[in-house]
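Tutorial, part two.
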Amino acid sequence: MTLTFDEFQRMFLQSVELMNLMENALELNHIEAAKLNGVLTEPFETPEGVKVQVYGQMAKRGSMILPELRLVKIKGN
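Running the prediction step on this input gives:
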């Protein structure tokens, strides 16, 4: 796939924005958000145009229960 500079720049900036959104959610609300056990964000698009949302839940990992955030594709896209 060949991209123009403008296409690459747009995708890169959208990726940075997505990373920032996820990092803020992790740093500020990780444990409390995961305890909500549900959707944490409004739907938004990835750089590829796929609609996704962030979900939080407490997940069992071995003998521990830890907070987990997941990026989930919205059905129908």
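Helices lie at 5-35. In part three we will examine how such features are distributed along the chain.
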